[in-house]
Amino acid sequence: MISQVFILSSKGDHLIYKDFRGEAGSDVVGIFYEKVTALTGDQPPVVMTHRDLHFVHIRQGGLYWVATTTADASPFTVIEFLNRLTALVKDYCGSLSEKSVQMNFALIYELLDEVVDYGYIQTTSSDILKNFIQTEAVSSRPFSLFDLSNVGLFGAETQQSKVAPSSAATRPIQSSREQGGKSEIFVDVIERMSVVIGSNGVLMKADVEGEIRVKCYMPSCSEMRIGLNEELSIGKSQLRGYGAAVRVNECSFHQAVRLDEFDSHRILRLCPSQGEQTMMQYQLSDDLPSAPPFRLFPTIERDGGGRLLMYMKLRCDLTPKSTAINVCATVPVPKGSVSLSQELSSPDQSAELKPQSRAVVWQIPRFPGGTQLSALFKLEVPGLSSASMLEVGPVCLSFELPKFTATGLQIRFLRLSPVQPGPSQRWVRYMTHSDSYIIRI
């Protein structure tokens, strides 16, 4: 049973506030923000208590999504409700940014009125709610001349226009034609890597968690058929076919996915509803079909002036056609480091010393495959000793790899049956993120 639901910005500004039962005072927003900001650490507890009131919150889109209850309710139920609420807001508003919530506050209040009745959850289904929601979403993405960059001479289609941008699916499911409500369906293959590489360069741990996510903007779609790699092997089952094998340890499917053709032809069948849903999740443990995407060659020493020298050579082992983006290397440094001077191999790189976190952060916006970048960091560390030099490392990498999957999982085809009337577009996108990529020094 839910007493209140409210959404706060990272600065504590309340964007949405809905009281369903009148059991708690109006000061609960301030109480929650004081409690959550008074705690040390980046991840405060999900469940907190103030007298007889329980706060349950999650962080999505840089916002606090909070539900309160005075009953002895299961916290997992409330967390699942908040996760589903954020999914609904993303479906109907297009994104979870602060600006999007502010521009669509009337729509969000209408959603809350339909989802919760006097504290009791009624439904969180996008298909059911679309019959009752009347408020139309306001797009938070302003017009930009950069949107015209994929238009050729006299409006002809260019090669760039055949690639869906990352922001293409961040729009409401009930967009009007004036807001660009195209008939589209997006299938995203998203993977997260957890890797540990020893100081000798040997791969010690490699785990991959992936999912196939569908976002549908079609008013009606009877059935969608997705073909995966024919050579896909699950668990300890025997490898199939004669091509390059793709293996995952385990997988699970959305309850609406039909698997009658999966064992024989690796085909998934689904009647997608409007909005976003995860149709398949899979995992690969302690194995990678290819080499890790990054290798680091560090040299740590002390110069004659007592400064700490860190020479880093970072190599991207992707194919030359691939490019890593938003690469960030965080290098822990000795306590007491006061200043940093740097020599970087390309002008688009940047680095800074963060004394509070005792780390040097090296940022690389774009990193083409098959290339190597280097950086020389000179740190002023008062009282530098051999013991303090041992505080350097391990290096933590974060990155994004578009058009790449670590497992090799691919979509062979995406078919809609029956064929949709009018123009419709189908997009398949691949993305691999770093969940935890640790390189020991």
3D architecture notes:
Keywords: Coated pit, Endosome, Golgi apparatus, Membrane, Protein transport, Transport. This is AP-4 complex subunit mu-1. It is found in: Early endosome; Golgi apparatus, trans-Golgi network membrane; Membrane, Coated pit. It is a peripheral membrane protein. One of its GO terms (biological process) is intracellular protein transport. This protein folds into 3 domains: 4-129, Beta-Lactamase, CATH 3.30.450; 184-290 and 404-439, Mu homology domain, subdomain B (Immunoglobulin-like); 294-402, Mu homology domain, subdomain B (Immunoglobulin-like, Sandwich). The chain starts with a strand and ends with a strand. It is globular. The protein contains 7 helices and 25 strands. The model is unreliable at 142-163 (pLDDT under 50). By secondary structure, the protein is mostly beta strands. β8 and β9 form a beta hairpin. A 9-stranded mixed beta sheet has the order 13-15-9-8-25-23-18-21-20, with helices on one face. It has a 5-stranded antiparallel beta sheet with strand order 2-1-5-4-3, with helices on both faces. 13% of the residues lie in helices and 41% in strands. It has helices at residues 28-38, 75-93, 98-103, 105-115, 126-129, 262-265, 386-389; strands at residues 4-8, 14-19, 47-50, 53-60, 63-69, 116-117, 120-121, 184-197, 203-216, 223-228, 232-234, 246-248, 250-253, 267-270, 275-285, 294-302, 308-316, 323-332, 339-344, 350-354, 359-368, 372-380, 395-402, 411-417, 425-439.
